[in-house]
C-alpha cells in the first residue's frame, strides 16, 4: 500500500487540503529520520503547489536518546533560543507548516531513566503554541506509516503484512479510499461544524464523563466555544490542522476539574509508552498520576511548569468517525485522539474562548492528550442552573 | 572498517580535537540523510564531552532535487531569512560546529537542468562566512564515508569492498591508524605552521603556477598572511577547521589573477560533477570557464554575485601529506583540496590579511575550491621587486 501513488495521494492531501499551501509560501515540514519517502513526496507536492521554499526538519530519536543517556542535567534543560525564534519567524513569514507523526522506533527510549525522559525539555516549544494561537500559519499534522510503527500496532503480523495493514488503515481513515477525498472531508467537517454550533449554543458550565473507572467533571469558561478541525488563519486561509480529524473540542476552565479518570487507550509520550493511566483531579489540578507503565515520564512532564498539571483541552468524538470503529490502538495521538473523547494536560487554545477569557486559558510548555471516552462512557453537559443534558450516549450525539 | 569502534574514534577525533568541544557548549552538527551512524556517534561524543545541546541538522538531497525539478524560479532564489540568522546566533552563543562531508548519492542531480542546479541559492549562506571571519565558533569539517560515495570513488570494486576501501583511506588520512591520532596531527601541524611562517616572512607579491595547461599568476595583498588549519577562536579555543588538513593558504588580491589554469582533479559542486575544468583569468576575473562536464553549473554559481568570479583563497599542498600519495580522487573538496594546491572562487578569509586589507578581501556567497596543483606544477613566489623564488618543485618545499 505504500506504493508511489498512495504516497503522492497522501502528500497531496496534506499539502493541498490539510495545510492548503498557497503559491509563494514558505513551507516548513517537520519530519523524522525513517520518514524520508513521505517527506520527499510532501516536499515535491509543496513545490508543485508553488511553494517558494520547503524547509524540511528531520529529527533523530537516536540523538535524543544520546542526550538523555549521556547529557548533563544542564543538557536536559537546554533548548537553543533560535528554535523558538524560528517558529515565530515562520508566523511572521505567514508560512505553511506540515508535521508528520507516527513513531519510527517506538521502544527506543525504554532502556532510559523514565524521569530523565520526562525531564528533557527539547520536545516542546512555547512558541509553537503562540503561533497556533495567533493563527499566522496554515498548518496540518498527518500520519506517516513506518515499519516500526506497524510492528507496534500489529505485533501479530509479519513485518510486511503489518506495514501493509497500517497503510490500509491510514488510507481508510484519511478517506483516501474515496474517489474524492477532499469532498468526503468537507462532508464530514460540515457534520462536525453543526455539532459545534449546537454545543456552543447550549452554553454548558461543565462536562461530566462517567464510565468504568471514570467519574470526572470538567468546568468550562463562560465563553468556551466548541470548534472542529475546520480552521482558518488570521488572513483567511482555510486549513485542516489534523488529518484525520473526527473531534470537536474546546478550552476548559483550568481551575475546575474534579474526580477521577481512567485512560481508555495507551499513549506514547516523548518516546515513552504510558499504559493503564489513571489521573485524579482536584480543583483543576492533576493531584495523582498513576499508570501500569510510564507514570514517571508523564509526572515529570507535568512538572515542567504550573500549567502542566491542569487541563487545556476537552474534546468529544462520536462513533461515526472512521478511527474508533477500527478498534486499533495506534499509539499515536493524532489517530487515537480521534477514536475517543479526550482531555489534554497543558496548553489551551486561546481561539476557543472569547477575548474576556483569554487570560484564563491554561498556559504550559506541554500539551498531552489522553483518551478517556468510548461507547461505554456517558458524556453529559451541565448548565449553570445545574440542569443535566445528555451529550453522548453509546457514542451517539444526543443534541 | 565502519565498525562501532572506528565510528567512535572518528567521532571522538572530530569532537575532541577537530571542533574541540568545551563543556557547556551548544554543538551544531550539519549532516545529511544517509550519514546517520556517524552523526549519532558525533552527537553521543559531544554529549560525553559535556555539550549542553547537540543540534543536528540533516539535509536531504532529494528535497533539493524536488526544488530544482519542480520549484518556481522564485524558489531557486529563496532562502528563509532565519537560516542565516541561526548561523549568527550560533556565533553569539559561542557554539561549536561540526559538519560531515562526502556525497551520499553523487549522481542524483544529473537528470536536472545544470543551469538551474547552479542557480539554486540554497547551498550557500553569507552568514557562514561572517561567523568564520569573526572566529566566534570552534568548528571542524570531517568526512563521512557512505556506500554511494564509495561507489563513486572505487567504481571497480564491489559495493562492500568499495566501502571498506574508502573507510580504510579515511582512517589513514585522518591518522586514525596511529596509536595517538591527536599527537600525529599536532606533529604535522607544527611542520605546516613552520611553512606558513617562512611563506609569510617572504612577503611575496604574487604566486605563479606553471604546469601542463596551467600558467597562472595570482596577486597577493600587501598584508596577506599564510595560515594552516591550526585555528583559534576569538576566545582562544584552538580547533582544527578541517580534518584531514594538509594545506597552507592565504587570501589573495581579488583584482589580480591572470593566465589560464587547468584543474588537476574533478570536483562535485552543488551535486554536479565538474570534469576537465579550465579557467582563464583576466584582471582577477574568471572570464572563461570551460569543462568537459558541468561547466554550466559552475558558471551559474559564479554569477550569484560580483565576487563569484574572483578568487578568495590560494592554497599550497606539499607531497608529504597523506592524501596526495593515495592517488585517489575523492570527489570531495575536503579531501581533494588537501591532495593538491588549489584556488577558490568566491569568499575570502578576513583573518588571513591585516586590518588595512580587510576591505579588499573578496566577498561572495560562494566559495568553490578547485585543484590546480600536482608534482608537475611548479609554484614560484614573485616579490614586489620581481624576484622569482621557488616555493614548490616536484611537490617539495623549496623554502
Automatic annotation (TrEMBL), chains A, B:
Taxonomic superkingdom: Bacteria
Named cofactor requirement(s): Zn(2+); Mg(2+); Co(2+)
One GO term of the biological process aspect: proteolysis
GO molecular function: aminopeptidase activity; metal ion binding; metallopeptidase activity
Keywords annotated in UniProt: Aminopeptidase, Hydrolase, Metal-binding, Metalloprotease, Protease
Family: Belongs to the peptidase M29 family.
Entry protein name: Peptidase M29 aminopeptidase II
Organism in which the protein naturally occurs: Conexibacter woesei (strain DSM 14684 / CCUG 47730 / CIP 108061 / JCM 11494 / NBRC 100937 / ID131577)
Amino acid at each position: 500500500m505504500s506504493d508511489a501513488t498512495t504516497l503522492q495521494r497522501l502528500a497531496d492531501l496534506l499539502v493541498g487540503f490539510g495545510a492548503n499551501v498557497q503559491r509563494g509560501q514558505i513551507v516548513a515540514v517537520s519530519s523524522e529520520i525513517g520518514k524520508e519517502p513521505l517527506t520527499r513526496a510532501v516536499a515535491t507536492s509543496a513545490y508543485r503547489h508553488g511553494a517558494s521554499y520547503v524547509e524540511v526538519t528531520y529529527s533523530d530519536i537516536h540523538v535524543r536518546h544520546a542526550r538523555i543517556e549521556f547529557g548533563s542535567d544542564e543538557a536536559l534543560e537546554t533548548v537553543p533560543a533560535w528554535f523558538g525564534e524560528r517558529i515565530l519567524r515562520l508566523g511572521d513569514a505567514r508560512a505553511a507548516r506540515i508535521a508528520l507523526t507516527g513513531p519510527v522506533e517506538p521502544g527506543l527510549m525504554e532502556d532510559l531513566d523514565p524521569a530523565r525522559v520526562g525531564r528533557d525539555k527539547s520536545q516542546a516549544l512555547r512558541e509553537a503554541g503562540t503561533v497556533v494561537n495567533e493563527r499566522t500559519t496554515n498548518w496540518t499534522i498527518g500520519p506517516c506509516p513506518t515499519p516500526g510503527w506497524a510492528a507496534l500496532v500489529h505485533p501479530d503480523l509479519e513485518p510486511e503484512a503489518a506495514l501493509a495493514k497500517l497503510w490500509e488503515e491510514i488510507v481508510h481513515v484519511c478517506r483516501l479510499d474515496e474517489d474524492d477525498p477532499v469532498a468526503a472531508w468537507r462532508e464530514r467537517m460540515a457534520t462536525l461544524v453543526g455539532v459545534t454550533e449546537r454545543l456552543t449554543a447550549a452554553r454548558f458550565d461543565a462536562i461530566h464523563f462517567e464510565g468504568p473507572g471514570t467519574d470526572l467533571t470538567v468546568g468550562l469558561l463562560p465563553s468556551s466555544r466548541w470548534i472542529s478541525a475546520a480552521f482558518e488563519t488570521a488572513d483567511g486561509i482555510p486549513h485542516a490542522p489534523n488529518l484525520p480529524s473526527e473531534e470537536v473540542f474546546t478550552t476548559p476552565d483550568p481551575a475546575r476539574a474534579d474526580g477521577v479518570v481512567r485512560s481508555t487507550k495507551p499513549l506514547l509520550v516523548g518516546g515513552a509508552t504510558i499504559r493503564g493511566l489513571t489521573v485524579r483531579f482536584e480543583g483543576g489540578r492533576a493531584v495523582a498520576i498513576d499508570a501500569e507503565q510510564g507514570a514517571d515520564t508523564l509526572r515529570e512532564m507535568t512538572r515542567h511548569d504550573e500549567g502542566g498539571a491542569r487541563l487545556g483541552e476537552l474534546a468529544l468524538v462520536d462513533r461515526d468517525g472512521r478511527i474508533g470503529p477500527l478498534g486499533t490502538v495506534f499509539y499515536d495521538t493524532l489517530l487515537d485522539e480521534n477514536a475517543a473523547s479526550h482531555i489534554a494536560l497543558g496548553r489551551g487554545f486561546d481561539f476557543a474562548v472569547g477575548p474576556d477569557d483569554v487570560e484564563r486559558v491554561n498556559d504550559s510548555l506541554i500539551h498531552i492528550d489522553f483518551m478517556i471516552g468510548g461507547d461505554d462512557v456517558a458524556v453529559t453537559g451541565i448548565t449553570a442552573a445545574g440542569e443535566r443534558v445528555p451529550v453522548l450516549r453509546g457514542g451517539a450525539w444526543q443534541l
